[in-house]
Design goal:
With about 400 residues, the protein is an alpha/beta fold. It has 10 helices and 18 strands. The chain folds into 2 domains: about 140 residues, FAD/NAD(P)-binding domain, CATH 3.50.50; about 200 residues, 2-Layer Sandwich (D-Amino Acid Oxidase, Chain A, domain 2), CATH 3.30.9. The longest helix is centred in the first third of the chain and has 19 residues. About 50% of the residues are buried. The protein binds flavin-adenine dinucleotide.
Length: about 400
C-alpha cells in the first residue's frame, strides 16, 4: 500500500518506520527543512512510566503511559543499534513532593505504589525492557537525612526513588531521522505544508503547498501526525473537534555543568505546576520550572509557529529565573550562575492537550493524558501521541491496523 504520513516529527517518523517495516511504501511530509525539528527534539525526554500523574487517581493515565514506556525501547531497538547514543539515559528520577503539592504526601505515596503495581501488571511476567532498569523494584522512600542532603527539606517534604529515566531527545531524533532518510521504502518530502485531505472512492488525496505552489497526492491511506498542526488539518478534512484543546508553549534549559560543579539528582517535583531536573552523563543537565518556563497558552485550533529555541533576552530571563527559583530548594544548584553557562540552550515547544484551565487548577484536565491515540475515518487517520513516550506504541498500533485492512 501507499501511505501518506503528514508530519515528520517523532510520531510521524516512528509511524513511517513501522509502516515500511510491514512492506508499505510511505511518503512522509513536513513543512520544515528537516525531520524531527519541533517538539520531537525540544522535549525533556522522560519516558513516562506513569509516576507523574498523581492528579489522575483513576490511574487511566498511568496505565496508558506504562504501555507506551514498555513499548518504547523494544521498538527503537529494531531500528537503531544498541550502541547508539539514543539509548543513553539520565539517572533515574526521584519523585519529590513539593510543600505546595496539590496532593498530600500520603496520597502521592499511595499513587506511586498503585502506578508501580500497574507497571508490573503490564510487564505481565515477562522481563520488561526499559533501559536496563529493574521495574520490579517499587518506589523507595528517602530518609529524612537523605532528603535534607539534596534539598531544602521544608520545601521538598517527601521523596521516593523510582526507576524512571529520560532519553536524550537530540540523540534519539538524530538516530531515528537518519534511519528514516536511508529507508528504501520511505520517501521524504520537506518544505511541504499540508492544508487538508479529501476522501475519494478508493483513495485519499492530500492537499498542500510546496515552495508557495499547491500540490496534491493520492494514497491508499493518509495519517495526520502533525502535533500542533493536527487539529487544523483534522478540521479542514471534516472531523469534528470534539474537545476543548489547549496549546501551551513551554521551555526548558539544557546545560553542561562547569567543571567541579555539584551534580544535582534527577528529580521530578509533584504534584502541580512544578518541574524537574534531569541529570545525564558527563555533567549534562536539563531544568524546567513551570512558573518560569510556561510562556504562552492558546485555545486556537492552530497555535502560532512558536520558536523552539528562545533567543535573547528571553533566553537569559528563562535561564536566570529557572536557576534561581529551583536553587531555592535544590542545594546542588546554589553555586550555579547564568554567566557561567554561555552555552546553555533554552529550548521548548508546543504541548497539545485537552483542557479548560491551566495546571494551577488541581481539577484541570491537563493533569490527565489518557484521551489520546488514534482516530480513524475511512482512509484518514489522526494520531494524538499525547507524549513522546507514546509515539512508538501508537505507531505500531496504527501500522498493524492499516496493514490488516
Ligand atoms: C518542553 C516540552 C517537554 C516535553 N517533555 C516530554 C517528556 O519528557 N516526555 C514525553 O513523553 N513527552 C514530552 N513532551 C511532549 C512531546 O514532545 C510530544 O508529545 C511529541 O514530541 C509530539 O509528537 P511529535 O514529535 O511528532 O511532534 P513534532 O516534533 O512537533 O512533529 C510534528 C511535525 O509536524 C510538522 N507540521 C505541523 N503542521 C504541519 C503542516 N500543516 N504541514 C506539514 N508539516 C506540519 C512540524 O514541522 C513537525 O515536524 C514535551 C513537550 C515539550 C514541548
Amino acid at each position: 500500500m501507499q501511505i501518506g504520513v503528514l508530519g515528520g516529527g517523532f510520531q510521524g517518523c516512528c509511524l513511517a518506520l513501522a509502516l515500511a517495516e510491514r512492506g508499505n511504501h510511505v511518503s512522509l511530509f513536513d513543512k520544515n527543512t528537516h525531520l524531527i525539528s519541533r517538539a520531537g527534539f525540544a522535549n525533556e525526554g522522560k519516558i513516562h512510566l506513569g509516576y507523574m500523574y498523581a492528579n489522575d487517581p483513576s490511574l487511566q493515565t498511568a496505565a496508558i503511559m506504562a504501555r507506551g514506556a514498555l513499548a518504547f525501547e523494544p521498538f527503537i531497538k529494531r531500528f537503531l543499534s544498541s550502541d547508539s547514543k539514543a539509548f543513553e539515559t539520565s539517572s533515574p528520577a526521584a519523585y519529590v513532593v513539593h510543600r505546595e503539592s496539590q496532593r498530600a504526601p500520603e496520597e502521592v505515596a499511595a499513587y506511586l505504589g498503585n502506578a508501580h503495581d500497574l507497571i508490573v501488571q503490564h510487564a505481565d511476567g515477562k522481563t520488561p525492557q526499559y533501559f536496563g532498569q529493574n521495574l520490579k523494584e517499587p518506589p523507595r522512600r528517602w530518609s529524612h537525612s537523605q532528603r535534607e542532603s539534596e534539598f531544602d527539606g521544608s520545601i521538598a517534604v517527601d521523596a521516593y526513588d523510582t526507576c524512571e529515566v529520560a532519553i536524550n531527545p537530540l540523540a534519539m531524533a538524530k538516530g531515528i531521522q537518519n534511519c528514516v532518510l536511508s529507508h528504501p521504502r520511505i520517501e521524504v518530502h520537506l518544505n511541504s505544508e499540508i492544508q487538508t485531505a479529501e476522501d475519494g472512492k478508493s483513495s485519499i488525496t492530500i492537499i498542500g503547498t510546496r515552495n508557495g505552489r499547491r500540490f496534491t497526492e493520492q494514497f491508499d491511506h493518509a495519517v495526520n501526525a502533525l502535533w500542533d498542526g493536527r487539529l487544523a488539518v483534522d478540521q479542514a478534512y471534516g472531523l469534528p473537534i470534539s474537545h476543548r484543546w489547549i496549546h501551551r508553549l513551554k521551555y526548558g534549559v539544557s546545560l553542561s555543568l562547569p567543571r567541579n560543579a555539584a551534580m544535582p539528582r534527577s528529580a521530578t517535583f509533584v504534584s502541580g505546576p512544578f518541574g524537574e531536573v534531569v541529570s545525564y552523563p558527563r555533567g549534562q543537565i536539563y531544568l524546567t520550572w513551570y512558573p518560569v518556563c510556561l510562556r504562552e497558552m492558546t485555545k486556537a485550533v492552530k497555535p502560532p509557529d512558536w520558536p523552539n529555541i528562545a533567543e535573547e533576552p528571553l533566553r537569559n530571563q528563562i535561564l536566570s529565573d529557572t536557576i534561581s527559583q529551583m536553587a531555592e530548594f535544590i542545594l546542588a544548584l546554589r553555586e550555579l550562575r547564568p554567566e557561567m553557562l554561555p552555552e546553555a540552550i533554552v529550548k521548548g515547544g508546543a504541548i497539545v492537550a485537552v483542557g479548560e484551565t491551566d495546571i494551577y487548577d488541581p481539577k484541570s484536565e491537563l493533569h490527565n493524558r489518557y484521551e489520546i491515540g488514534i482516530t480513524s475515518h475511512n482512509r484518514y487517520h489522526s494520531i494524538d501521541p499525547g507524549k513522546l513516550t507514546m509515539a512508538p506504541y501508537f505507531a505500531q498500533q496504527l501500522a498493524d491496523q492499516i496493514s490488516s485492512i
